[in-house]
Specification:
The complex is a heterodimer of chains A (about 220) and B (about 375). Chain A is mostly helical. Chain A is about 40% helix and about 5% strand. Chain A has a domain of about 140 residues: Rossmann fold (3-Layer(aba) Sandwich). The two termini of chain A are about 30 Å apart. Chain B has one domain: Cytochrome-c3 Hydrogenase, chain B (Orthogonal Bundle), CATH 1.10.645. Chain B is about 45% helix and about 15% strand. In chain B, the strands form 3 sheets. In chain B, strands 1-2-3 form a 3-stranded antiparallel sheet. Chain B has a 3-stranded antiparallel sheet with strand order 6-7-8. A two-stranded antiparallel ribbon of chain B has the order 4-5. The longest helix of chain B has 30 residues. Chain B is globular. The chains are: A mainly alpha (about 220), B alpha+beta (about 375). At the A-B interface, helix 4 and helix 5 of A face helix 4 and helix 5 of B.
């Protein structure tokens, strides 16, 4: 069940969206310099008067954002840090992020950790299609974001966003496990609708795809 | 019973990466296994020919992301051999210490994930990662990066080690000695672990030699071969250490060999810390390398955590003209169809796990 303001894969790309991107970027940077105003997430069991204000939509968002089940799926180097994410030092279980599942049908977050070769692309796409909807994708590390050090290679696609829509990009080679914490918290904000600006961004606004350099 | 064909992977939690296995089973018994590889191929050897000499370590260390420093060191050492640059003595000691710490970290990760795959023991996974995190912290403080340390330069390191390097290494070695000796108490008492590794995936001595396997897989089959002894590099000929050898060649012996290697590595680190001289360990800064290399070809071999790694290089002025890598994990994987024949299907993943394969290195 796709949200109405969510990413519409079927919608054709309009050039206006892309022309506005620069303006939008400058707005984004200017707003990021403003002092941060904390917005509290709607509590489920708060005061009764607040509870009545909640619509059903908010309850659904609250539920989704607090039960992220990532897919246990590693491709290359970053999968080592993904293991460290769940191990003794970081222990992601204390935040409830660690319901790693072996089958995509039970999961709603895909963490693409590692470089994606042309022979793995159909498999990753199949896994994404098998996940329960709505599904979210995190591109973890340089290789999944842009191709990384293998950018010139003949067998690598330059970023997983050429194949499936990506919600959060995590920079680093490899990013520290703490960064995955940040990414998942960002994803929670996005699901709750706090970061409105990002929700309309998707596959159609990918620069490289527009230039026709995709696979 | 009719033979059934099962497809495993390429994306599967138990295969330690991106491996596809086509398995023919008769009931629960494996009749044949056919590994399909190449899902991580990105043409490293070709990419390395397009880079300057000291740009390449960031490629070589992604070959083996569990022990990045070992491939990194093998490459830098072969460039030093090609250009005729001597390594500073204090830097040789520091390299040996860091390489042995890296070997322990690699074996710890292997042990944690393999035991986790077999089942039951998530505790040991947590323990192994707890101890591995301490080693990574040391390597991070020495090099500046947590996982991929591009800190080797021609003739030494990018910078001198921190002032308390020797004390910290000694304290860490003591800590690891205490912790690692706790592991067999958990493993040998666990019937699940013993039943799924004892007499599973037996590789005979003759097969091990004829397939050309190396490293702990070879030593578990009763062959006493280690590059650190047979072709010593750096200061390994000055150190006294034992090479653990087992004779059964099953998955349990492969675990024992790796386990005893960790303890031997600790003793190597202690000896090297005793003998380490004071001195500068900083090497040449990264820049264009002017003089042409002397020999026509360079062949360099080192004992990596997974076996014997060899680099064959035809050097040119600024960059390698041709480079070829001998990956130990690729050759160790080639015995999989042989040793998993007539085994139970459920034991397939303890066999794959015990070989300690890594697919970035196999596919290259």
């Amino acid at each position: 069940m796709q949200e109405s303001e969510g990413i519409d894969l079927e919608a054709p790309y309009t050039k206006e969206q892309f022309i506005n991107a620069e303006q939008e970027m400058s707005m984004l940077t200017s707003e990021s310099l403003k002092p941060y105003k904390k917005e509290y997430a709607p509590a489920m069991f708060g005061k009764l008067s607040e509870l009545t204000k909640l619509t059903l939509k908010d309850v659904v968002k609250w539920g989704r954002s607090n039960s992220l089940w990532p897919l246990q799926f590693g491709l290359a180097c970053c999968a080592m840090e993904l293991m460290d994410f769940g191990a003794a030092r970081i222990d992601a279980e204390r935040k409830g992020y660690l319901m790693f599942r072996g089958t995509p049908r039970q999961c709603d977050v895909m963490i693409v950790a590692g470089w994606v070769t042309k022979s793995v692309v159909p498999r990753v796409k199949r896994l994404y299609e098998q996940m329960s909807k709505p599904s979210y994708v995190i591109a973890y590390g340089e290789c999944a974001t842009s191709g990384g050090p293998w950018w010139e290679s003949y067998n690598i696609i330059q970023g997983i966003d050429q194949v499936i829509p990506v919600d959060i990009y995590v920079a680093g080679c490899p990013p520290r496990p703490e960064n995955l914490f940040g990414a998942l918290m960002k994803l929670q904000e996005k699901i709750r609708g706090k970061v409105d600006r990002y929700t309309s961004r998707g596959l159609s606004e990918n620069l490289r795809r527009i230039e026709g350099k995709g696979i | 019973m009719a033979i059934m064909r099962i497809n495993v992977g390429p994306i599967h939690p138990g295969t330690h990466g991106v491996l596809r296995l086509v398995v023919d089973v008769d009931g629960d018994t494996i009749k044949s296994v056919e590994p399909h590889i190449g899902f991580l191929h990105r043409g490293v050897e070709k990419l390395m020919e397009t880079r300057m000499y000291m740009q390449n370590p960031s490629y070589t260390e992604k070959l083996d992301y569990i022990a990045p420093l070992s491939w990194d060191d093998l490459y830098v050492n072969s460039v030093e051999k090609a250009l005729g640059i001597p390594v500073k003595e204090a830097a040789q000691y520091e390299r040996v210490i860091l390489l042995e710490f890296q070997r322990i970290a690699s074996h710890l990760l292997w042990l944690g994930t393999m035991v986790n795959d077999i089942g039951q023991l998530f505790t040991l996974f947590m323990w192994c990662f707890r101890d591995r995190a301490k080693i990574l912290k040391l390597l991070e403080d020495v090099s500046g990066s947590r996982m991929f340390y591009v800190n080797l330069r021609l003739g030494g390191f990018n910078k001198n080690p921190p002032d308390d390097f020797v004390d910290r290494c000694r304290a860490l070695a003591d800590y690891l000695q205490e912790r690692i000796s706790e592991y067999p108490d958990v493993l040998d008492a666990d019937s699940v672990f013993m039943e799924r590794t004892k007499n599973i995936g037996i590789l005979s001595r003759n097969d091990a030699i004829s397939y050309g396997v190396s490293g702990p897989v070879l030593r578990a089959s009763g062959v006493d071969e280690d590059v650190r002894i047979s072709h010593p590099y750096y200061i390994y000929d000055k150190l006294k250490f034992r090479i653990p050898v087992k004779t059964n060649g099953d998955a349990y012996d492969r675990y024992r060999v790796r386990y005893e290697e960790m303890l031997e590595s600790i003793s190597i680190i202690r000896q090297a810390l005793e003998m380490m001289p004071q001195g500068d360990t900083a090497g040449m800064p990264i820049r264009l390398i002017g003089p042409a290399a002397k020999p026509d070809t360079v062949v360099m071999q080192e004992e990596l955590p997974r076996g014997e790694g060899i680099i064959y290089m035809v050097p040119d002025k600024q960059r390698p003209y041709r480079i070829s890598l001998r990956s130990p994990a690729f050759i160790n994987l080639s015995v999989l169809p042989k040793i998993s024949e007539n085994m139970r299907f459920a034991d397939l993943f303890s066999i794959v796990g015990s070989l300690d394969v890594i697919f970035a290195e196999i596919d290259r």
